[in-house]
Write a structure and sequence with these properties.
7 strands, 6 helices, Rossmann fold, binds guanosine-5'-triphosphate, about 30% helix, alpha/beta, globular, binds magnesium ion
Length: about 200
Amino acid sequence: MKIKTAEFVISNTEVSKCPKEEFPEYAFIGRSNVGKSSLINMLTNHGSLAKTSGKPGKTQLINHFVINKTWFLVDLPGYGYASVSKDQRRSFQKFIQDYFNTRMQLACTFVLIDSRHKPQKIDLEFMEFLGLNEIPFCIVFTKSDKLNKSTLPKNIENYKKELLETWEELPPYFISSATNKAGQKEILDFIQGVNESLTN
Ligand code: GTP
Ligand code: MG
């Protein structure tokens, strides 16, 4: 799919104030600093559409971007980091839960996982939350440029093995790099496929 236009629409913490257009919507979620905002910029070939930072906790709001004037990308705050108590850090912010529970046009959620790390409880719990609420999701293994050719597939295999302990089937998954654009075509083609299935 070709990205012709990518425009910022609105940022907020209230799901009721998210855009009213019933465009299919794709949300990006994951631990702070995993690369959600960078992935959105990479997918749209836009250096600074979504704000990125080396420090975790940059994105604090629900950010809507409209692509080709027909579908939304949504940049969400990261979980697993905050300058708050451990208990609060573990629980997903309420407005994020509200977002997932009420945003009807959510076509697919991309759960971002840092490809360098072992499976983390908070990510597995978040996928469980999505599964229990019947929210379709894919996994994106980010920052693949930071791993060598033999470690990357090993880590992915390890992650798949861990998922198969609780899931009967693996979700679709992608391997990405905001630096060398790995995964760009695959993710955009996937989104195009979902968009087409929704209009047919
Ligand atoms: P929060 O909004 O704080 O939750 O973070 P985020 O998940 O949006 O992460 P962000 O895109 O801001 O990226 C965090 C840091 O990781 C930045 O310094 C990025 O430059 C870096 N980064 C993101 N993706 C990649 C990648 O694919 N490769 C490399 N090498 N660095 C990346
Ligand atoms: Mg961000």
